[in-house]
Amino acid sequence: SRKMNPTAPPANEQGQERRSASGKPSHFRASVRFVAPIPPGARPDPERGRSAAVLDPGMRRPAWLPHRQPEGGKAGWRVLLERLPEAIFLLDPWDPDLADPAVQCPEPICWQRRQLGNHVWTLGWPILECNAAALRQSGYTRGQLIGQPIGMVGPRIDQGPNFRHLLDTLQGEKCVRFQGFNRRCDGTIFPVEVSFALVELSGRKLILNAHRDVADLRRAQDELTKLKLCLRLNPHAVMEFNRNGELTAFNPAAEDLARALGVANPASMLPPGTGRLIDDCLACGQSELNRVTSLNGRRLCWFFYPLVASQVVFAHAFDITNYTGA
User: Fold this and answer.
1) pLDDT > 90? residue 318
2) What is the pTM of this model?
């Protein structure tokens, strides 16, 4: 029968199809194991064996190699996955042929036109299921992802031991988080925050893996870092206020101005009603310019610039006592 129909399930010694106790064919559930394929050109590591092969970004699992999905209550957990906004993957960490889940990647990680270290380690655990958010984020179709190693997507980090002992760590911790980089289907790289948790579905322990795209957050953090660097290097006094009107930061020039005015710190030289002024700037999004005050015989000119999106206000102060302009 196998010669006539190559897709027919294997038979036992009596020529009968193997079935489970429930009477259902068991050829997709009995002794099915994921064996990570080594793509052409991969460099196996003789010291660590097959699982340490270099991962090709284009690696695909052979279509004929089946995978097992969680059984029982499938509709329930699938609906739950689809309701989550993050990209969610269900992974199988119990593959006996994958003694070391850490897999090495050869290509460098570049983001925003600069190389960000050697993030060359990822995971070889196979994907059992994923939600629609994961498909949108990665650019793959569901058929391209199911059964493939999660390393096709990511995350990619620069510390292999973190992945090598991840399963042991999850046995004692509820959740483990990493910062790394993912790779989309078109080859683009983007930063992610990933979390791993050991869950049980229908009596089977699996890994729930969530991927959150933090590219926008990283860009905002980079811009804020550059802004604060510019403020710190500014030769004029600059102070930062939060939405409550509290002074949260100031540069060295502000400290120098406070000492020149004979006060203890920059907070002691602020104009009267600064808190209300901060509220008005954030409420209307308008800057307050050329506010002149006097302190200890010196005249100061203040400029307040709100950043409504960040809910902060920056104040610049100038000593205009000796200013003779028109």
Assistant:
1) yes
2) 0.56
Residue 122 CB partners (closer than 8 Å, separation 6+): 55, 102, 103, 105, 149, 150, 151, 154, 155, 156, 157, 163
Give the span between the Cα atoms of 58 and 152, in whole angstroms.
7
Output the pLDDT for position 315.
Answer: 93
> How far is Cα 241 from Cα 228, in angstroms, rounded to an integer?
13
Q: Tokens 């006592």 appear where?
A: 321
User: 43: pLDDT confidence band, cut at 50, 70 and 90?
Assistant: very low
Q: Is residue 252 predicted with pLDDT exceeding 50?
A: yes
Given a contact cutoff of 8 angstroms between Cβ atoms, the answer to whether 208 and 87 are in contact is: no
Calpha distance 168→176 (Å, rounded): 11
Judged by phi (left if over 0) then psi (alpha if -120 to 50, else beta), residue 148 lies in: beta
Where do we find the tokens 């493939």? 148
**Could you identify the residue written with the tokens 């031991």?**
161
321: amino acid identity, one letter: T
Is residue 321 a contact partner of residue 299, using CB atoms and an 8 Å limit?
A: yes
Rounded Cα gap, residues 242 and 306, in angstroms: 10
Residue 253 CA to residue 239 CA, distance in Å, equals 10
Under 8 Å CB-to-CB from 169, ≥6 apart: which residues? 176
3-state secondary structure 97-111: CCCCCEEECCCCCEE
Distance in angstroms (rounded) separating the CA atoms of residues 35 and 50 = 9
